[in-house]
From TrEMBL:
Signal peptide: none annotated. It comes from the Bacteria. This is ABC transporter, substrate-binding protein. Pfam families: MlaD. GO terms for biological process: phospholipid transport. InterPro entries: ABC_MlaD (IPR030970), Mce/MlaD (IPR003399), MlaD_Phospholipid_Transporter (IPR052336). Residues 37-114 form the Mce/MlaD domain.
Length: 156
């Protein structure tokens, strides 16, 4: 009888731990039941480094997350849908860009508010976008321009 009780308690503890991990994973991935947000759309040339659940930040503070990514077959751009917390009203001339947390850090979506008096309504599109910049292509440009300078010589 005592053996069954200890097995039951051990099973309950394992089940509680599993539920805790599932809830934690849902929060980290941005899967919440929070209805206090509204959607906005943006179209990027490149969305390398971001995925559904990526943070959306304003002045370094998380204000939402990426809720959808899809390829637009007409423009060949990536259409992104983001959710932004209620109460944060963005001007219509705001910009959205994909930023990096550092040299080895991940990417996130950054909102840069504009100065217009009108604000974006739910479902509207942010027109001013800047896609992700590939660190490897930047390094290749730097190395390539350095090689050209050494071939030409100084003063040419």
């Amino acid at each position: 009888m005592a053996e069954n009780r200890s097995e039951l308690l051990a099973g309950a503890a394992v089940l509680a731990a599993a539920i805790g991990f599932i809830v934690y994973a849902g929060q980290v991935a941005g899967i919440t039941r929070d209805s206090g947000s509204y959607p906005l759309k943006a179209s990027f040339r490149s969305v390398d480094g971001i995925s559904v659940g990526t943070d959306v930040r304003l002045a370094g503070v998380k204000v939402g997350s990426v809720t959808g990514l899809a390829l637009n077959p007409q423009t060949y751009f990536a259409d992104a849908t983001i959710s932004v917390k209620q109460g944060i009203e963005l001007p219509t001339d705001s910009a959205i860009l994909i930023s990096s947390e550092g040299l080895l850090g991940g990417n996130y979506v950054e909102l840069v508010p504009g100065g217009a008096l009108e604000t974006l309504a739910a479902g509207e599109e942010i027109e001013d976008t800047q896609g992700s910049v590939s660190l490897i292509s930047l390094l290749m440009k730097f190395v390539g321009s350095g090689a050209e300078d050494t071939v030409k010589g100084p003063g040419e």
